[in-house]
Design brief:
The protein is of the alpha/beta class and 293 residues long. The chain has 3 domains: 2-98 and 188-218, Periplasmic binding protein-like II (D-Maltodextrin-Binding Protein, domain 2); 100-187, Periplasmic binding protein-like II (D-Maltodextrin-Binding Protein, domain 2, 3-Layer(aba) Sandwich), CATH 3.40.190.10; 221-287, Alpha-Beta Plaits (2-Layer Sandwich), CATH 3.30.70. It has helices spanning 2-9, 23-32, 63-69, 79-85, 128-137, 171-175, 199-219, 233-239, 268-277; strands spanning 12-17, 45-47, 53-58, 74-78, 90-94, 100-107, 122-125, 143-146, 162-167, 178-187, 189-193, 221-229, 247-250, 256-264, 281-287. The longest helix is centred in the C-terminal third of the chain and has 21 residues, at 199-219. Bound molecules: phosphoribosyl ATP and zinc ion (ZN). Phosphoribosyl ATP binds at residues 17, 20-22, 59-61, 78, 80-81, 98, 100, 165-172, 187.
């Protein structure tokens, strides 16, 4: 009896950002994976209604530590934080959102040719671990000034000669009169887990990973339907990669077929143009909600 109860109440604890750039997409991937829970407004934890999962809402910087300590079994956090905090955790899967780069930038009028120009200079950053590894690899000795925020103003207030900070659109650098000179790290949000999950928790994590992968894959693909003249079917089917081969069904109108397939977002326009050139008509493109391969 006792044992049954333990199994029933056993939950996987996943830590996500409480508020900030990763919050909404983290909630979205969980919800699109069919997991229902109330969001973190004024809450530190929330239990899923339909999956043995508890969501903990934390500051992103704290997530790797909580996972290493086993307070959380898994987490969603930027790879920049994973690399900077350097905890004993496992990166399970990249999630395709929160993309950014960690870059070195200097005042736009600075005479800069290579990283060697920063020898003996001061670089302000919130990422001293990643930056010092990079400088060491490049054999450049520079002084690292660790700051916790507003890194981009460091050169204009005389605190540093250069900065090393996260960049996505580049508009913050531009607005502060800085130019990006080196990309030292590329990052996106990732699912992480502890290294010592027991059998039950590992099985739950595997289930979540399976769902995350299906959601991620569906975001990159579209379902296309079109009418094709039968004499062009061979050519059209060759253009369509799909999951296996396209579905071909005869239309009521003689000499025509309906062709269905899945295409990759990245090659989307290229494929559509080729389909049209080969006589496809009435092309419909539909988003895919989940994709299990
Ligand atoms: O409160 P908490 O500690 O949880 O949040 P935070 O303020 O430390 O982090 P937050 O919400 O700003 O970022 C969370 C994560 O989002 C980061 O760790 C990255 O993995 C990811 N991410 C993606 C970014 C950016 N893009 C980004 N552009 N994090 C920060 N920025 C900042 C950057 O520091 C700079 O100030 O945005 C500015 C640059 O943006 P652009 O578009 O002007 O180039
Ligand atoms: Zn943070």
């Amino acid at each position: 009896m006792e044992e049954d109860k333990t199994i029933q109440t056993m939950k996987l604890k996943i830590a996500i950002q409480k508020s900030g750039r990763l919050y909404e997409d983290s909630i979205k991937i969980l919800r699109e994976s069919g997991i229902e829970f109330s969001n973190g407004m004024n809450k530190l934890r929330s239990e899923a209604y339909n999956f043995p999962l508890e969501v903990l809402f934390l500051r992103d910087d704290d997530i790797p530590q909580y996972v290493e300590d086993g307070v959380a079994d898994a987490g969603i956090v930027g790879e920049n934080i994973i690399a900077e905090t350097n905890k004993k955790i496992r990166t399970v899967e990249k999630l395709g959102f929160g993309k950014c780069r960690l870059s070195i930038a200097v005042p736009k009028n600075a005479d800069y040719r290579s990283i060697k120009d920063l020898k003996g200079k001061k670089i302000a950053t919130s990422y001293p671990v990643i930056l010092s590894k990079y400088l060491k690899k490049k054999r450049v000795e520079a002084k690292i000034e660790t700051v916790s925020g507003s890194v981009e103003i460091a050169p204009s207030v005389g605190l540093a000669d250069a900065i090393c900070d996260l960049v996505s659109s580049g508009s913050t650098l531009f607005a502060n009169g800085l130019k990006e000179t080196e990309v030292i790290f590329r990052s996106e949000a990732a699912l992480i887990s502890g290294t010592k999950l027991d059998k039950e928790k590992s099985a739950l994590l595997k289930k979540i990973l399976f769902r995350f992968k299906a959601v991620k894959k569906s975001r990159h693909n579209k379902y296309v339907l079109m009418n094709a003249p039968n004499d062009k079917l061979d050519a059209i089917c060759k253009i369509l990669p799909g999951m296996k081969s396209p579905t071909v069904m005869p239309l009521a109108e003689k000499g025509w077929s309906s062709v269905h397939s899945v295409i990759d977002e990245e090659k989307f326009w290229e494929i559509i143009e080729q389909l049209k050139e080969n006589g496809a008509q009435g092309i419909l493109v539909v988003p895919i909600e989940k994709m299990i391969v």
